[in-house]
Amino acid sequence: MTSAGVRSLGELTFIEVSQRLQQTSILCLPLGAIEQHGAHLPLNTDVIIAEAFSRRIVARWGDRFDMWQLPSIALGLSREHDWAPGTLSLSLQNFVALLRNVGGEIVRALPARNLVIVNGHGGNRGVLENLMHELAGDFELNACAIHPFDLAGGDVEANGLDVHGGKSETSVMLVLAPDLVRRAMLEPNAGPPDREKAAGLIFDRGASFPWRSDDARLAANGVIGDAQAATPEFGEAIIERAVERSRGVLERLLENQRVLRARR
């Protein structure tokens, strides 16, 4: 069996790494979380989503941009869900240390100097935006993060709150892992009692709050959004838009590498 078409780093031999990867290769790192997603979705929803988007991005653009998928990181920053049994969360310090160690190992062990983090959990986002400066400054690793749902854009619910375990995530899971969606446990979306106040706790650009998914002002049984409105068709549309739009992200990443190399 030949490995000529393989684009998973773990399936290469150490000899093939030197033969097939180069400085301009792009590494794709799925980053998820283990946390509650309501009564209808599994704890590893964010891992499934990060891995699947990574695979599809690499399958679509791997040959064009010389992409390679890395093993997944399954734990993230999930303190907003720590009220629920099964939720596992790294501390902020350990999350940063883990990703810095991964960055250091990439530079030590591989010729590639481009990294795309495919982030399946919104709670990881704020730290990633600062951490990428350290990956560049301390390791000369050119990095970016893809947040698939935001990259896809598209439908917005009437109440403006499709944040966690709602229409979008459930729709995507109906495509990626339909056997893991507990359809009998889908609950009607009553919506927060004060939608404007609820949106302010999460989306206010002028102030930040440590919102939690057990806050009755925001969520019902850990869900913020209308999971009953989910459909596989909507999930397919999200996936296709995100994968297609990832091309522009990859082009900008390589442009950034050229700019950084010119400065040195």
Explain what the structure shows.
- The protein has 264 residues and is an alpha/beta fold.
- The chain has one domain: 3-Layer(aba) Sandwich (Rossmann fold), CATH 3.40.50.
- 44% of the residues lie in helices and 8% in strands.
- α2 crosses α6 and α2 crosses α8.
- The longest helix has 32 residues.
- The chain is globular and about 55 Å long.
- The model has no long low-confidence stretch (mean pLDDT 93).
CATH superfamily: Creatininase
Main beta sheet strand tally, sense and closure = 4 strands, parallel
For the record, give the distance between the C-alpha atoms at the N and C termini, rounded to a whole number.
42 Å
Mean pLDDT: 93
Percent helix: 40-55%
CA-atom Rg in angstroms? 19 Å
Low-confidence stretches: none
Number of helices: 8
Determine the structural class based on helices, strands and strand pairing: alpha/beta
Overall outline: globular
How many DSSP-defined strands?
4
Side by side, the strands of the main sheet go 2-1-3-4
Instruction: Quickly give the CATH architecture.
Output: 3-Layer(aba) Sandwich
Domain count: the total is: 1
> What is the third-level CATH name, the topology?
Rossmann fold
What's the level 1 CATH class?
Answer: Alpha Beta
| SSE string, helices as H and strands as E | HEHEHEHEHHHH
Summarize the structure.
The chain has 264 residues and is of the alpha/beta class. The protein is 44% helix and 8% strand. Helix 2 packs across helix 8 and helix 6 (167-176) crosses helix 8.
